[in-house]
Specification:
The chain has helices spanning 13-18, 24-36, 48-57, 61-73, 75-81, 85-137, 147-155. It is mostly helical. It has a domain at 23-120. The longest helix has 53 residues, at 85-137. The model is unreliable at 1-8 (pLDDT under 50).
Length: 182
């Protein structure tokens, strides 16, 4: 069995032969080029203003539609907000279409992350096999040259821990000592 093998999707075997797979660098370059072509693409910092934008974006859909009705019913409301009902409906339709894109990108991200987990597991499997085989071989004199590697592997933890979450800031100590009743 090969240590690193490429996965071939059953449904797309013929398509894969016609079009070469992307390298990670090519994928990054294409994603960056793709990003440049997305209208209104923006990264939002985690600020109070962004939280307010996200809160307003969760406005009830029925409420929004009633507001569109008010815009259509009153020329004054329409002139104050600066949009016609048709413009608002087109913006809503465009948002729905971009939501489909968002969903596909989430699926793409999950797929890339899963592929990396599989790649990481394959490497881990190969490393554990190398450790086990080397550990058996060093018992024989002709494989003594593997001993430094096996000893280093034994000293290292096999599994890394997840990164700890950032600790919350400790509360400031009370300035006035509290006394407990006796």
């Amino acid at each position: 069995m090969a240590i690193i093998r490429s996965s071939v999707r059953n449904n797309e075997a013929s398509a894969a032969a016609a079009e070469p797979m992307l390298t990670p660098e090519e994928a990054v370059a294409q994603l960056r080029a793709f990003r440049e072509r997305i209208p209104e693409f923006v990264q939002l910092a985690n600020t109070r203003e962004t939280r307010e934008i996200r809160r307003r974006a969760r406005l009830n859909v029925e409420f929004i539609r009633e507001a569109f009705g008010a815009v259509g019913a009153s020329e004054l409301v329409q002139s104050v907000i600066g949009n016609s009902p048709d413009e608002l409906h087109r913006a809503e339709a465009e948002m729905s279409r971009w939501t489909a894109v968002e969903s596909e990108l989430h699926a793409l991200l999950r797929g890339v992350a899963a592929a990396n987990v599989v790649r990481r597991e394959r490497l881990a499997h190969a490393a554990l096999q190398a450790y086990n085989v080397s550990g058996q071989l060093v018992k024989q004199e002709e494989f003594a040259f593997l001993l430094p590697h096996v000893e280093r592997m034994r000293r290292l933890p096999k599994y890394s821990r997840r990164r700890p979450r950032a600790a919350a800031e400790p509360a400031p100590p009370d300035t006035v000592p509290q006394t407990q009743p006796v």
